[in-house]
Design brief:
8 strands; 5 helices; Chemotaxis protein chec; two-stranded antiparallel sheet
């Protein structure tokens, strides 16, 4: 399970060092794709394959919006193998999508990691955190 918040730097070649705590999950390769709120979602190869299988199983029932989402999500996906220093290159298309500068925030989000521009993450976090503390209704159906 991927947990925590990390603040790596993007180097001049568009690479980041993956958090050491993620090495077991990502050591054999990652798949990166567009995510919500202009973050980059990072999955292990196995997790991504499972996700795509679940998406494709539901594809016949998807409307146009679902098909559009699936196309955009999968067309942006890219496989990367970490080098010996645990660095991966973030493709230019994804760096542009996420508005990445040198300062990044990487968060563990359970089955995936997310890469954010640090300023964008700080803005998002400040906005979402107030609602988190004050949530008084059911936020996640059946759990909270």
């Amino acid at each position: 399970m991927l947990l925590g918040t990390f603040v790596p730097k993007l180097d001049d070649k568009g690479r980041i060092i993956l958090p050491a705590k993620f090495t077991d999950d990502f050591g054999n390769g990652v798949v990166m794709a567009r995510g919500q709120e202009h973050a980059i979602y990072v999955y292990s190869q196995t997790e991504f394959e499972s996700l795509v299988q679940r998406m494709q199983a539901q594809a016949p029932a998807l409307g146009k919006q679902g098909r559009d989402y699936l196309r955009l999500f999968l067309s942006s996906a890219t496989q990367e193998i970490p080098d010996k220093q645990h660095r991966v290159t973030i493709p230019a298309m994804l760096r542009e999508y996420a508005g990445l500068d040198r300062d990044l925030t990487v968060i563990g989000a359970g089955s995936r990691a997310e890469i954010w521009d640090a300023a964008a993450w700080n803005t998002y976090y400040a906005s979402a955190e107030a609602g988190f503390a004050d949530a008084d209704g059911e936020v996640i159906s059946g759990l909270f």
